[in-house]
Amino acid sequence: MREEGRPHRQRRLRGGPPGAGGQANFVAAQAGIAGFTRVVCRDVGRYGVTVNAIAPAAETRVTLGYGRRVNEMRDKSGAEQTGGKAHSLPDPEFIVPAITYLCTDEAARINGEVFHLMGGLVQRAFPERPYRSITKGDAWTSADLEKALQPGLLSDIQNPSPA
């Protein structure tokens, strides 16, 4: 395609919601694909190739009846229904327009992005970057870190799965 003067668009796909408990291997693979996307876009962008990833959440044979099964498990266990009942995922047809758009010339400037898609929801993922820092003139000791981390760097941290 490059030889003919037309830019080639390459897309990488990944699936599922991030952070699902009990699926460390799956979530690690998703993070790897997101990182791969962000690096490869820099490597091939100079040739007119764009690389983006999508994280679609849609009903498939694997997820069929997911909402119903989650609700049944919660009811059996007596678990509290925080956030209400689980819903079924939307049909995969909701994902197609986003993929189609990313393959158009109008989307040629979009490169190295990860999009989460679910029904009518489109989210642009924020790449992991430092957003808060602490510094010291020399090497940190454990005692120094203990004093410095809580009031500043980690003041808003909560354990996502406390014991």
Which tags fit this structure?
single chain, 163 residues, alpha/beta, four-stranded mixed sheet, 32% helix
Characterize the biggest β-sheet.
4 strands, mixed
* Strand arrangement, major sheet: 1-2-3-4
- Mean pLDDT equals 78
Fraction of residues in helices? 25-40%
Oligomer: single chain
Radius of gyration: 21 Å
Q: List SSEs in N-to-C order.
A: EHEHHEEH
SS strand fraction: 5-15%
Shape: flat
The total count of strands amounts to 4
Number of helical segments?
4
N-to-C CA distance: 55 Å
Question: Unreliable stretches, pLDDT < 50, 5 or more residues?
Answer: 8-18
User: Which structural category fits the helices and strands?
Assistant: alpha/beta
Written overview of the protein:
By secondary structure, the protein is an alpha/beta fold. It is 32% helix and 13% strand. The chain has four helices and four strands; from the N terminus they run βαβααββα. It has a four-stranded mixed sheet, sandwiched between helices. The longest helix is centred in the first third of the chain and has 21 residues, at 24-44. The radius of gyration is 21 Å and the shape is flat. The relative contact order is 0.15.
